[in-house]
Each structure stands twice: as C-alpha cells, then as structure tokens.
Amino acid sequence: MADPKQQASIERMRRFDIRPRRKLGQNFLIDNNILDVISTAADLHVDDVVLEVGGGLGVLSEFLAARVSKLQVIEIDNKLSDALDDAVGGFENVLVHYGDAVDIDFGELDPKPTKLIANLPYNVAATCVIKAFYELPALELCCVMAQREVGERLTAKPSNKLYAGTSVLVQAISDNTTTRKLSRNIFHPVPNVDSSLVTLKRTAENPPPEFNALVHGAFAHRRKPLAGSLALIRRGHDDADTIKQRAVAALAELGYDANTRAEQLPATDFLRLNELISEDRG
Questions:
Q1: How much is the pLDDT for 4?
Q2: C-alpha angle 134/136/137, rounded to 5°?
Q3: Ordered structural domains, the chain, with CATH
Q4: SS3 letters across 25-87
Q5: Residue 46, class by beta-carbon neighbours within 10 Å (0-12 exposed, 13-18 middle, 19+ buried)?
Q6: pTM above 0.70, yes or no
Q7: What residues in the chain have per-residue pLDDT under 70?
C-alpha cells in the first residue's frame, strides 16, 4: 500500500507518465512530512507573496497556495504542466510561469514576491537565491531546499574553503536563521548528494550595483592578493592603473595588509571596502 504522505507525488508521476529529467536537476519532493517544517522555518503568513522556483509535481505549490496571498511558480519543464495544473489549477491566487528562472527577471513579477520558498534544482540553487535577494529588494526571506554543499557555501565564514563570492553576496544582506539536514529519501529519484533546508532572513538593503562586480573581481583569482585580483579583472578599463593602489589603501584603512586575499574578509568588510574604493574614485 502506498504511503499516504507520498501518494500525491507518486500518483501524479504515474498518471501523467512523468520521468525525472536528470539534465534539469529534477529530484521531486515526494514526502509531505517536510511541509510543516518549511512552513515554520519560512514563518508563513496569509499575506505573503511567495516565489517558488521549480514547481515540479506541485507538492509544495499546493501546500503554499492554500496558505499565502499569492504564489508565483516558475517551472522550466513544460512537460510538467498537467501535474502542476492538477495541483494548483483550482487556486485563483497562483500564477505559473514556464521558463528558465536564471533568465527570468524576478523584478518583473507582479505582485512582487516577499519570500522565496522552493525545492531548488541543484545546478541553479545559489544563483536563484542571489537573484531573488538582489532582483527583489522587498524580499524578506529565502527558505530553500538545496544540495548541502550549496547551503554550506551560502553560510560559510571567512577562511573556510567553501567561502566565496556567493557567500559574501548573501551574507552582506542576510543572516542564516536555520539549517536542517534532509533525508535523501524525501526526493525521487533519490539524489547522490545530501540536502539541507536553509533559511536566510534579510537584514539589510541591497548594496549599490558596483558591489557585485567588486566581489566577483576579488574572488576571480582567489590565490592572489585581493588587490591584485581586482587589477587583473579591470584590465582594459579606465581605472586599471589605479584600482590596485586604491584597493591597497582601502584595505589598510580596514586593518589589512596588501597581501590580504578575498577569502579573509567577512561580508561587512567587503561592504566597507566597496564604500572606500568608491569614495576614492570620486
């Protein structure tokens, strides 16, 4: 006899002849037991406008639709349209968009989502979290299921081998409130990697646009000193000759020497570094 907690997912796969597509990173959520955990972690309210990336078989979509004001679902695979319609077709507060979330401007969604709650495809998880925060200034929270290494990268601290530009961009504007390990058995097919439920709450407004470029430039050559990495990435630009000097001066003001590497600075110091370099440029 089928487990009633898995019945909707398994039944939709059978009824609509759905086979997970590995190239799309599809590992469908099949166990409803995790849904109440997500609801608590995401602090769901009836007035929330939620963005879900990767609607899949609609298990999470159906759960959210019954509890929030508006649900915007993005799904790359239009072959899942029948299953998704089966899950949320009866809800008037759901909008389903078929396309690649990486290419969709979240800022164009109407109404604007205030929370990202999703079982994210492994290959775009970090990208979607950053896009959501930076393209949706009113976004308050991300509560996502993702590959455990992605969660560890998002929350990694300086000098950790997983600490990277992704870590800085996320930690500059949010705090990790909860991280929960997930059983591989709540997904189908069972993934070859471990997963986590990660919740990030916004703590600050988005920094100016040049912050993103600074962070990516700083980590572009992570074995080199930060100032040298910035100089390399700015080759061919008007400020190529002065960026290293300005970066060294800014680092000194923050208490770092010229050989400091990007992985040594916390997000708060990256924010200040960006301010000092911008002031010097001005």
A1: 47
A2: 80
A3: 7-202 (3.40.50.150), 210-281 (1.10.8.100)
A4: CCCEECCCHHHHHHHHHCCCCCCCEEEEECCCCCHHHHHHHCCCCEEEEEECCHHHHHHHHHH
A5: exposed
A6: yes
A7: 1-7, 280-282
